[in-house]
């Protein structure tokens, strides 16, 4: 298989995934999350149910279709930051960008739908835990950070909670301004293992 064929296949796969996600979100917002089944989404997107499940593991995953991108952005805030750039400001910058995206007017109906559904709230909780673990892994793997795995996991949980708390706040940026100095202080207090 040539690289061109592989690239075309990946683009087609990505387009199908996006079509399914867009269709699902439209149907959920029009009819209500609980009123729409997987078969409804597949039929409307003109794909087989098996095709839908090859892209999304569950009905809830259709709502959180940008979940993998969110996780990549968080880990890249660690791995792609400039040499000698402090970690916490890099994380704050990325969290601010994600919060701005998620608090845009266009996102409000989606968050209302999530907040109204116990299944979606539970799924959101599991997604946040997974993001915290991925972020912790990236932090712990960075040889320049020299903190314990426990410190990395703690920082990651704080950062994910900062995202959630600020997204729900009346003034998200003010909330981040209040939260991140506490995160910075906690990270500074976590001495590298060889210094304790």
TrEMBL record:
Keyword DNA-binding in annotation: yes
Pfam families on file: TetR_N
SUPFAM superfamilies cross-referenced by the UniProt entry: Homeodomain-like (SSF46689)
Domain HTH tetR-type positions: 14-74
Record-annotated DNA-binding residue ranges: 37-56
UniProt keywords, alphabetically: DNA-binding, Transcription, Transcription regulation
InterPro entries from the UniProt entry: Homeodomain-like_sf, HTH-type_TetR-like_transc_reg, HTH_TetR
Protein name as it appears in the record: TetR/AcrR family transcriptional regulator
Organism from which the protein derives: Streptomyces ardesiacus
